[in-house]
């Protein structure tokens, strides 16, 4: 793979258009960022759980604020990568004009990396999958192909993001969000189908990156950008190199910022946060500044900023140093796992504490359980109602609640199930709970 082909301004749905046909203050990749910022799926992230229940009196991150912060870190990673490349080769812009846009490409991909995640975080994904593996949806196995069934039993938010951005939903632009090919490819962490994914030890196939219905779309993107075929999987591809930087930006943010939220919620003390972050901040050189602050929240913010800066610089250096491996598709770990040993060990400590004290905190577990029940119940109502040929009056009323954009002309079981999943997975936490209460008769709608 080579950067000149990997960085393409060709736009999904406008393949025949010359990108130089118009003059604009923004580059094609900046236009991607702006389209995402103003899009409905992105705005809905403000009411989707990141880790903790949506904020009450104390602010914690939701999917939208998380995505904005990941995009900020991603832009820095991209700019630092370009600056290091430019330092080594001052004439690099002539050989690869779009390399200077890497920061914009990565920040756009970071904005959209969670677009496909359903309500209630990972418990929402688990609820959708379990509906087909253990619940009432298991009866549909004989009505779909093996590839389609693999999609259903392993719902994947990353694959759903690609669908949201490219699928021609009813009444919407048939070209989807018409992002550039490079931005779309940079979103797909595991460029293979569900049936070929979930392979232990293979970084390109740890999960999967596109549904069966988007396989041809991704193949088109891969061909344009020159993505190499995965030698372990003839039907799959090697990652676009920028995926590693998008992934690193996400890893940096959730590892560090979850500690900040935990401190705000008094799950972790300031001392506990300091012990975890200070080794990533230059240690003793920061102590004088910390001692000059009396507000513990400000201290945590300073530690967070310094830790993120350390990780950004370390990741960019590893990416440049191992660029040949990334372009060859032979770099077989996450970027964060390849940093210097002391950083990796400290990140492991953070992860261990996060799992024990944050991700298993009572409020987190409670929202996961509630979300699991809500999502499963919605599928139990809407999937059979939408699939039935002879619908009852109740079935017809349920189907009428599905917005027109999610309806499909497909008559096969997979196509209809996918239409319902588009509807349910796009719900915010608040909307899913409200709809669940209404269709279960727990709350009655009023006219005001």
From TrEMBL:
Entry-linked SUPFAM superfamilies: HD-domain/PDEase-like
An example molecular function term from Gene Ontology annotations: dGTPase activity
UniProt keywords, alphabetically: Hydrolase
Annotated GO biological process: dGTP catabolic process
Keyword set includes Hydrolase: yes
Segments forming domain HD/PDEase: 59-264
Protein name per UniProt: Deoxyguanosinetriphosphate triphosphohydrolase
Taxonomic lineage: Bacteria, Pseudomonadati, Bacteroidota, Sphingobacteriia, Sphingobacteriales
């Amino acid at each position: 793979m080579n950067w000149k082909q990997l960085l393409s301004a060709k736009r999904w749905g406008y393949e025949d258009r010359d990108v130089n046909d118009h003059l604009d203050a923004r580059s094609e990749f900046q236009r991607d960022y702006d389209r995402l910022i103003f899009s409905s799926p992105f705005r809905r992230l403000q009411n989707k759980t990141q880790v903790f229940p949506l904020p009450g009196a104390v602010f914690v991150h939701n999917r939208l604020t998380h995505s904005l912060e990941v995009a900020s870190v991603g832009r820095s990673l991209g700019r630092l990568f370009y600056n290091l490349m430019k330092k080594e080769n001052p004439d690099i812009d002539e050989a690869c004009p779009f390399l200077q846009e890497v920061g914009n490409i990565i920040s756009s991909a970071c904005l959209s990396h969670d677009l496909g995640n359903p309500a209630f975080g990972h418990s929402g994904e688990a609820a959708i999958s379990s509906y087909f593996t253990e619940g009432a949806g298991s009866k549909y196995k004989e009505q779909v192909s093996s590839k389609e069934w693999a999609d259903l039993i392993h719902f994947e938010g990353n694959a759903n993001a690609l669908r949201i951005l490219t699928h021609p939903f009813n009444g919407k632009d048939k070209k989807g969000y018409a992002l550039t090919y490079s931005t779309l490819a940079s979103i797909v962490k595991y460029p293979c189908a569900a049936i070929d994914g979930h392979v232990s030890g293979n970084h390109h196939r740890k999960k999967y990156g596109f549904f069966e219905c988007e396989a041809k779309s991704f193949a088109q993107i891969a061909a344009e950008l020159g993505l190499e075929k995965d030698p372990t999987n003839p039907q799959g591809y090697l990652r676009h190199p920028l995926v590693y930087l998008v992934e690193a930006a996400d890893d940096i943010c959730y590892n560090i910022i979850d500690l900040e939220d935990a401190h705000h919620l008094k799950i972790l003390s300031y001392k506990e946060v300091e012990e975890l972050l200070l080794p990533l901040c230059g240690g003793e050189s920061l102590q004088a500044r910390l001692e000059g602050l009396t507000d513990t929240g400000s201290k945590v913010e300073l530690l967070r900023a310094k830790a993120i800066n350390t990780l950004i610089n370390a990741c960019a250096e590893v990416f440049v140093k191992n660029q040949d491996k990334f372009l060859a598709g032979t770099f077989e770990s996450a970027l964060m796992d390849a940093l210097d040993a002391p950083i990796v060990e400290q990140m492991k400590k953070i992860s261990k504490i996060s799992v024990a004290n944050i991700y298993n905190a009572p409020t987190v577990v409670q929202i996961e359980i509630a979300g699991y029940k809500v999502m499963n119940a919605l599928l139990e109502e809407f999937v059979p109602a939408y699939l039935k040929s002879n619908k009852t009056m109740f079935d017809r009323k349920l189907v009428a609640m599905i917005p027109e954009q999610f309806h499909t002309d497909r008559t096969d079981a997979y196509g209809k199930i996918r239409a319902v999943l588009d509807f349910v997975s796009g719900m915010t936490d608040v909307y899913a709970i409200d709809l669940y209460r209404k269709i279960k008769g727990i709350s009655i709608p009023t006219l005001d």
